[in-house]
Amino acid sequence: MCRPVWMIAAGWFLTVAMAHPCDTRVDVRSHGAVGDGVTDDTTAIQASIDAAAAESREVDGQVCAELDMGVFLSGQLHLKSGVILFVGTTAILKASTNGSLYHGDTDWPYNVAFICGYSVGWSGVAGSGVIDGQAPQYVTSLNPVADQYDFEQLVGPFVNGPFRYRLVDFKHSRNVKVQGVTLLDSPSFHLHFLNSSDILVESVTVSSDLRWPNCDGIDVTSCNNTIIRGCTIRTGDDAISPKTWQGYGPLHNLLIEDCTFHARSGGIHFGASAWYDYVNVTVRNVRVLDSHGGLSVQVRGPGSVKGLRVENFMVGRTTWNSPCYPWMGNGNPVVVSADVWASGPAGSQCNATGGGISCGTISDVSFENVTSQSENGIMISGGKIRGAVQNITFTRVVVVIQQLPSNNGSFGPCPSRNYWPTSRTTGSPEGGEIAPINGIFIEYAAEVTVADTVVSFAGQPKNNNTFGGCFAVDSNSTSSVVIDSATTRCNSAVTAT
Question: Does residue 371 register a pLDDT over 60?
Fold first, then answer.
């Protein structure tokens, strides 16, 4: 298998064996940690990290601050260069619910994290233990309509306003790895990287309640040279969400491989607030077992997606969220969508009609060996901007549309097309349009090819929904769309269009 040059150069990250990462170890108990689940061990653990940093030689010898055998309650911790925070098999590192033990981010006062890796190198988190964010401790009630928790936030003297902390947060860092650990019940993002490079996330498990909002599994924001490999993620929001944020630049060279996701929102969701470009992204050998969206590529700002390869991708089931409002997903296995969101943080910075900064586009995207079961079909849309989506190919794709029976819920009809977030006026709330459910729907796009593809409809549609054609192409807004009739097959009572 050929690897991109940037992966080969980052040889430190190609190690697969999960051996202990450090020759030198600093036991947190030697600095006074108790590990009984009630004693505040913040000072002792931070002292261990600092002591490990004093012994570290960074590149040729990381030092571990090691936790083992116990439940260690702690407030905010700050990693140092050359230090690995190692959480052993019998250790649980638990985030304190005491707001006074957290400080706000110097860049963003409202951004707070439990484990902080800021401006560090050759650092990370490893082990086979658990890092527990204690999100259930903040639940106040359950919204029965949205099937979503309401919650309280922490307050503290060193944070400007109420806050929810991220579990592990790296920014302005290089040569970072997170390996083996289980990240449990974060009140916000579980693992976030910002403006960092040469990142490895390997064999990490993320587990949270599907009813907890805004608890993304892994977010990679404006980073370069990132590998996410062999991870299992169950979360109430997006499993993985690549982003580009204002002031931090583009995202280059992202590989997501050999992962399994169960997400309330999307398996992989490219964030709608695209300030800068996403360049050279590969997704392969990935399974999305259950979600409201399989893979969603959205552009709602000046940033573009240039070069996305999806290979060996399986969507076990995507469904609508009750009552048909999208929770970052509209039952589609795949969405490729560029649209105008003038009121959005990034969308307000571009002009889709000419003049100033142009809005972003999506180009050079390929899907190969894709299998999906879903309540809705694949949607390709340039959002009324001709040429905003172009050079998209589908090869060896199987799409089965099967909607859950009406006795699973009384809601319906659900919108087959959803443009949220968008500035356009739509017939249904939250950017939706009621229309027949098509296997693959294409509009406002150019140079789209579909070959060696099978679309089938199984069972009956939901209340007031209807099944449409296997392939639906809006000829008024598209150009150079090729559906290869010799290699495609349509298993539908409705004539393909």
Answer: yes
